[in-house]
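Appendix B, example 12.
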Amino acid sequence: MTRFMQLIENNSDLKAFCAQKLPSFITVDTEFMREKTYYPQLCLIQVGGEGIEPVAIDPLAKGLDLSPLLKIFADKKILKVFHAPKQDLEIFYQLMDGKLPTPIFDTQVAASVLGYGDQIGYNTLVQQICKEEIDKSRQFTNWALRPLSEAQLKYAIGDVTYLITVYIKLSADLKKQKRLDWIEEEMKILSNPKTYKNDPEEAWKRIKIRSGKRLDYIVLKALAAWREQFAQDKDIPKTRILRDEVLAQLAMIHPTKPDQLTRIRSLPDHYKSGHHCTNLLKVIKTAVDTAETAEIDLPMKKPRAATDISAVLDMLKLLLKLNAHEHGLAAKMIANASDLEQLAMDNTEDLPLLQGWRYKVFGQDAENLLKGKLMIGLKKGKIIKNLT
């Protein structure tokens, strides 16, 4: 599929593209870099669709105003089709002042509920549906370097032109198999702006720490918030400030003097003296001094089963495997090991497998199994299920 892709670098061309009559759905992709920054550096936006020529829009072009394009992304009458768009949407969340393109369709999620496998890659999906091979050699080139090469633009066009065929095939299959509501449930998470809001006060929840002490979590929360805010203000990766494991060590030791910092494994030398050292100790000291009045929702420990649930888990795993195969789904798409464990212990509050389409394809059978209303057995060498 070789087609011409216009590179838009000025406002008049962008306005002309956005002013044309657009189809009911457009395909969208981006190229970005974030190795040296906190926020992704947007380098290219590709847009395609039936009946229109695909374009690549250069957000790095001097004086280019993306407003006409963002207006289209906000148009609820035009569906925006992506593949695995979480990072793309993170970019648009920043560009659109906390809003997102709407409505959206994720071909990766659609493929997963149609039996193509869990988190299938775009290239594999194109191979299976379009019978075409995408040259991925340009995927990791420097997209910020100008001018862009013909090879880069050829690669970029494939990410939105093949996506047209992929979307048409998947959407038709979703309708045929009556699974459109399944993907709509999944899109709610991707379409929620809260998914992309990196609140410094919530950053500690993403860091693993082996501690049950309230003070350790309070110090961790303060350190994580400080690092997140620092990274955002300077637009640098968090790991270039301090790695997660170092924050966890600091939180559990909560040093108050410079000489104590020398004992922290993997702590960069520039945090052991000077103003970096002073600032770090100040964050820790403030957290310790205000610990009694600090507000924090400590992570809930998963309750341990009062009895051995291994046999129950084995049965649930077998049932999950059977039902996943029956519906042509990846088992991970329905439930994970933690979900099954919580179900086995009757901790069912907000459990995904007991909601929506997951309940229909597995949750209901799982409940019946636990109540003794569903039996699993062998018949002529095959595993079968029977309601009692």
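The chain has three domains: 6-196, 200-289, 310-387. The longest strand covers residues 25-33.
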